[in-house]
Amino acid sequence: MAGEGHQTPAAAMLTRAGIEPTSLRLCVAEVLSVEGQALPAADILARVRERHRANKVTLYRILDLFVEKGLAFRHSSGDRAFRYCLGPRFSSRAHCHAYCVRCGRMECLPAPETFVDMAALGERMAMDVMGVEVRIDGICAACRKAAEEDGETTGPVDAEPGNN
What is the distance between the alpha carbons of residues 125 and 137, in angstroms, rounded to a whole number? Predict the structure, then answer.
């Protein structure tokens, strides 16, 4: 049993973010902390339900709270579903994302500083830049390989007129 004052990493994150660590919030924070990718809410809910009773409305409220407090980032994707991952203060590093337009996987990439000079951007725009979201859209290696094996082209799934 952990000694008094010792917190799990998820509990410590919630405390740092100023969020009361309920059991469900802890579970959601744990799910976000073990993933190397930004997840849609449905995937987060499925992983949470493996360990805890939860409903969709409560999960969305928790995710909204996490975003409001800076614990998580909400990222838009090409399929109209938001993806969630830990914010830079709570993950091992600030990061960018690569989004596969065919399968919808959103993978976390190295820090945005390798893509954008935030200090120079802030000076040029005369503003305090608090963050930069970089998303690279493309077709992942697995989807490209599957398409080649099936003799398909590797264009986006929703590239047809009317599907955007």
Answer: 26
